[in-house]
Amino acid sequence: MGLIFLGVFVGxxxxxxxxxxxxxxxxxxxxxxxxxxxxxxxxxxxxxxxxKYMKDYFPVSLVKTAELDPSQNYIxxxxxxxxxxxxxxxxxxxxxxxxxxxxxxxCPHLMMLNLWFYLPFFRDSIxxxxxVSSDKExxxxxxxxxxxxxxxxxIIGGAREIxxxxxxxxxxxxxxxxxxxxLALTHGASLVPIFSFGExxxxxxxxxxxxxxxxxxxxxxxxIIGLPFPxxxxxxxxxxxxxxxxxxxxxxxxxxxxxxxxxxxxxTEEEVNRxxxxxxxxxxxxxxxxxxxxxxxxxxxxxxx
Length: 305
Hints:
Elements: H1 2-11, H2 18-30, H3 43-46, H4 49-57, E1 60-64, E2 74-79, H5 86-93, H6 99-102, E3 107-112, H7 122-128, E4 131-133, H8 136-143, E5 150-155, E6 171-172, H9 179-187, E7 190-197, E8 204-205, H10 213-225, E9 232-233, E10 251-255, H11 269-290, E11 303-304
């Protein structure tokens, strides 16, 4: 969609509707900081019926294990990223799985790679869904908003974790990811671990073993433009053998119990490491408590890297 919108934006310049591009560019310059200022969340777009059909395709479901107090703010760590982050989008950016019903008084926002907010028209559509840019300024704005009940969703593994997304994989990029911990301590926001069973089963990837030329190219692209460009495939529209459609595999997103965080304006390295270790333990406990329901072998555990 982003590339299509970019093509329309440039293509209009060569038609009699060129003024639309000029006017939008002017509006864009005035609105350029909006992704770092909470976006432009619109409930109408979050409740579009198309998201229900998208949810039913897999299907995707959201499970609550504990209450979230609307008088507090939260940082929710979402795992794993998957190839396209379908579960995180449907659960936190739409009402297709009933987020507001399960967690009344909680207003979710989801961080997304800054690159996508540089695509014309597309940036406006994703902001309407509650997506915000993935930088510290953006997170600070959400957690400092008037009133409480704000939930900042962060896919902790980020774009790099896409390369780990394949059926049966439970390898998470988390061991060295501590920025969200510092953010939680600075603002006193409770941490909520979220694990989405089935997220990695929606696509297959072309093998990219560590050290191979293909893996090196992907890492190079990741450093240059922030995207790893995985070669993935799923099913077709009329057949299930090969195509770009995701497989119809259930995705069940489990929201864990919140971890209380004491506000610390200048947290020490020891405090960050202690809370980070606690978060990993709670995430492991969440995975272990539910894995047998999804036919995951008892000897299979989360792997952190």
